[in-house]
Amino acid sequence: MKIWFYAYASVVTFFWVATKLVNCQAAITGQWDFVGHSGVSSMHAILSPNTNKIVFIERVELTTNVTINGKPTYSVEYNLDTNEIRALTTLSNTFCSAGSYMKNGTILNLGGAEAQKGFAEGFNRVRLYNPCDDGTCDWQNDVNNLNAKRWYPTVEQLADGSLFIIGGSTQGAAVNNATINVASYEIYPSAPGETSIPLQFLVDSLPNNLYPCVHLLPDGTLFIMANQKAIVYDVISRQIKTNLPDVPRAARNYPLTGASSILPLDSSNNAEILVCGGGNQISPSKTVGEFSCARISPTSSNPTWEIEEMPFGRTMPDMTILADGTILILNGCNNGTAGFNKGSDPVLTPVIYNPKAPAGSRFTKMQPSYIPLSGSNPNNKPNVDGPYPTEFRVETFSPPYLFTGVPPPKIQQAPKDLKYGQSFDINYVAYSGTRKMTVNLHQPAPAGGAIAPPGPYLLNILDNGIPAKAAWVMLS
User: Fold this and answer.
1) Rounded to 10 degrees, what is the CA torsion of 449, 163, 237, 239?
2) Are 315 and 337 in contact (CB under 8 A)?
3) CB–CB of 368/395 below 8 Å?
4) Is the pLDDT of residue 22 over 60?
5) Which among 32, 160, 303, 338 is most buried, taking Cβ atoms within 10 Å?
6) How does DSSP assign 334-362, residue by residue?
7) pTM, whole model, 2 decimals?
8) Listed residue (420, 412, 413, 410) closest to 455, CA to CA
9) Strands (E), 267-305
10) Which residue would you say has higher pLDDT here, 11 or 375?
11) Which CATH architecture has domain 2-403?
12) What's the pLDDT score for residue 285?
């Protein structure tokens, strides 16, 4: 038995945790199910805390099927119980924005693109969404804007719950350059008089450095990667703590976009980072998706990249941690670069990466999807023609652990609020064959914010490799 704290990544494919009928093939490769329509082409998706809903965010274009009072809008709330949508207000152009949770559970979306279709520009806007379960919540503008215009920035939560906002450009572009590069970061909420802080790393990593990969490490420092360069950065001292070796083989950031994840921590708190996909640019239309994943322990005494080969090359993949601690890698294409209709040959087959398996046996192919676009739309207006029409279908992916024939454990009682280091009780029902057991556990919460920043989490039980339906908990 293990207990996991985890948060959902902004991926447009969702994961059921429910009892499934025994299905021999699905028990090996998982299962896709079409469940509904999104109304918007979902560029970003984030789970709304303490609800069973997802917030979708689209760019401002002619691609929406949703209106408010007759005016197009580009964000919706999707109900996972009913598969129905509720239109949300569009405040400014959210194209190429970024998002995060705040420590009080508020969803934050920031940055964006130029004014479009009667909507304000979003380059330095901050939008806030306070989750609700009664259909009344909506996007609101923060009274304060960002200190810099940011198209394609990255947001990562720090140990104290504040947000680290890094990079971007001052306008949209096929590739970044010195004229538009935003070589700085800022902290949100900012202290009075605080401005953007220059970071030479964002100059040295040009041109493929938009949406840099950033992960909070258990000692409170940040792993930052852009293009093929990587560092460990100390936000308190504003100094680079470690210059890591260059990432081998390929560029890993926009427009040669890869994906990254911090691997689940164990009691040793030895953080490892996994970076997969990307590309080496020959020309925008001839770039081949990178086959490799690169893995590193950035705070070790001798950090070195370990290279592993995926079954498929991928540009623009997505990665998310599943409830059993494995990593799902999905979406993306084999050829081309991000944006501007340059991607082709979509990769429909996801793979699961098991970080604890021996090297050479960590990847398992899953059941292919039939839908080639997830979280992307190459069209300026709805297009039903090929090769890649505007896509509003929503599908769920159920991992193999839901098809074992054994009912998942069921959490009966868990705390809604936790303090760091606090011990807590959790009660759940588990199944071993046909035998039903009630289990009571006494566990410690994470020791501090560098291990798990304050805010909303999904608390889960993993029993014999099978997860329960998670319970929401606020950690502070």
Assistant:
1) 120
2) yes
3) no
4) no
5) 338
6) EES-SSTT--EEE----EEE-TTSPTT--
7) 0.94
8) 420
9) 273-277, 279-280, 288-296
10) 375
11) 7 Propeller (2.130)
12) 65
Q: Dump pLDDT digits (tens) for 167-220.
A: 999 999 999 999 999 999 999 999 888 899 999 999 999 999 999 999 999 999
At the topology level of CATH, where does 410-475 sit? Immunoglobulin-like (2.60.40)
CA–chain centroid gap for 188, Å, is: 19
Going by pLDDT thresholds of 50, 70 and 90, the confidence category of residue 12 is very low
> So where are the chain's domains?
2-403, 410-475
Q: Assign residue 65 a region (left: φ > 0; alpha: ψ between -120 and 50; beta: otherwise).
A: alpha
- Per the document, the length of the chain is 476
| Residue 433's pLDDT band (cuts 50, 70, 90) | low
Backbone φ, ψ for residue 395 (5° rounding): -130, 155
| Residue found by looking up tokens 């538009």 in the block | 180
Q: Which range has the worst mean pLDDT, 27-36, 74-83, 258-267, 377-386?
A: 377-386
Q: Output 268 or 157, whichever has higher pLDDT.
A: 157
The contacts of residue 283 (CB under 8 Å, 6+ apart) are: none
Amino acid at 33: D
Contacts of 284 (CB under 8 A, 6+ apart): 174, 255, 336, 337, 340, 342
Q: Phi and psi (nearest 5°) for 34? A: -80, 130
